[in-house]
């Protein structure tokens, strides 16, 4: 029987913990949360009132406030924290891992200081030889919780590890494909948040479907260019982790990045739009990281650059759109 610890009590970690707890063959599922009120509400009321309100959780799901205690007996550990917190939290967890425990990263972002992916961070802080996989794709937490049919991809350098993740997570409504392009899956999941911010900005400006279609298409080209320059496989960006997640996040009203973009396009400044939000909007830090990576590797990222200008330098969204449209004419290229 498999014992699972989900490290991160946000909406996504909670939805996955609930999914796993409802699979009858798992021995036990523990959810670690930094916030004491989340631990208390899950254990007392079987609901995460802060991050997934109104969603009764599996009665067997237990919450824990001590990350070491949460992972100490787990066969599978799901790293579900925001990207900027992965190093700190999983360093604390690493010393208590069972030998051979499988660690699955479901975070979608880049570590801001080092511009590295979550799996790279895990490789640095976990005991040598720990098998690490990533799970990503078009998957809103609320819809996964509601058992709506969802398809994602599990990637690991060792395909057998990815196949093990398939077995752990797959259900009748949550279909998991396998892959080996770990870097591509993670970059796609992180960079699409920047394009989702841009899509929200367009909506906030009152622009329509023509504009959004162009943005998504050219945004995918940017993501692919940067990903390939960093060593990822081009085909990954046409799959669930790339195109699939980009379409969802750039068009779906449940997307935190898209919603923030709408507020920016409607005239709010970043500080106003972020005020009072409990959940991290990963695309904000990723926009800055993407621009830096593009400059470092000589990759042109015009959309990401304009998003960063709006976020951090006070550029008006309307001017950013005009500057994108008035760039020199060129042939359409994907790489």
What topology does this entry show?
Layout: E1 2-7, H1 11-21, E2 26-32, H2 36-45, E3 62-64, H3 67-71, E4 76-79, H4 86-94, E5 102-105, H5 118-125, E6 132-136, H6 141-145, E7 150-155, H7 159-169, E8 174-179, H8 182-204, H9 209-229, H10 240-251, H11 256-265, H12 270-274, H13 282-297, H14 302-313, H15 317-325
Parallel strand pairs: 1-2, 1-4, 2-3, 4-5, 5-6, 7-8
Antiparallel strand pairs: 6-7
List keywords for this structure.
Rossmann fold, 8 strands, N-(1-d-carboxylethyl)-l-norvaline Dehydrogenase, domain 2, 335 residues, alpha/beta, globular, 2 domains, eight-stranded mixed sheet
**Number of strand segments:** 8
Which residue ranges are poorly predicted, with pLDDT under 50 across at least 5 consecutive positions? Answer: none
How do the strands line up in the largest sheet?
A: 3-2-1-4-5-6-7-8
- What is the total domain count? 2
Radius of gyration over all CA atoms, rounded: 19 Å
Average pLDDT across residues?
96
- Give the name of the CATH architecture of the largest domain: 3-Layer(aba) Sandwich
Largest sheet: 8 strands, mixed
The total count of helices amounts to 15
Topology-level CATH name of the largest domain: Rossmann fold
């Amino acid at each position: 029987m498999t014992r699972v610890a989900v490290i991160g009590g946000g909406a996504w970690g909670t939805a996955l913990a609930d999914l796993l707890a409802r699979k009858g063959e798992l021995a036990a599922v523990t959810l670690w949360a930094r916030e004491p009120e989340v631990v208390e509400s899950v254990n007392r009321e079987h609901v995460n009132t802060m991050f997934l309100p109104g969603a009764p959780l599996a009665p067997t799901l237990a919450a824990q406030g001590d990350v070491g205690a949460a992972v100490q007996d787990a066969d599978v550990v799901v790293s579900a924290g925001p990207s900027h917190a992965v190093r700190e939290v999983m360093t604390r967890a690493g010393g208590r891992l069972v030998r051979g425990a499988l660690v699955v990263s479901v975070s979608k972002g880049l570590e801001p200081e080092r511009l590295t992916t979550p799996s790279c961070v895990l490789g640095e802080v976990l005991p040598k030889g720990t098998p690490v996989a990533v799970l990503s794709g078009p998957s809103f937490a609320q819809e996964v919780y509601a058992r709506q049919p969802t398809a994602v991809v599990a990637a690991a350098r060792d395909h057998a590890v990815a196949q093990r993740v398939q077995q752990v997570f797959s259900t009748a409504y949550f279909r998991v494909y396998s892959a080996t392009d770990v870097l591509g899956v993670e970059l796609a999941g992180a960079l699409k948040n920047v394009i989702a911010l841009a899509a929200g900005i367009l909506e906030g400006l009152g622009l329509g479907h023509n504009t959004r279609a162009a943005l998504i298409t050219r945004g995918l080209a940017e993501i692919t260019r940067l990903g390939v320059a960093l060593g990822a496989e081009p085909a990954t960006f046409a799959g669930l982790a790339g195109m699939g997640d980009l379409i969802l996040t750039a068009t779906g009203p449940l997307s935190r990045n898209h919603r923030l973009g709408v507020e920016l396009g409607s005239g709010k400044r970043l500080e106003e739009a972020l005020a009072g939000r409990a959940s991290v909007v990963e695309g904000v830090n990723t926009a800055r990281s993407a621009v830096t990576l593009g400059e470092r590797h000589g990759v042109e990222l015009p959309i990401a650059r304009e998003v960063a200008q709006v976020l951090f330098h006070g550029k008006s969204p309307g001017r950013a759109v005009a500057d994108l449209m008035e760039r020199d004419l060129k042939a359409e290229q994907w790489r």
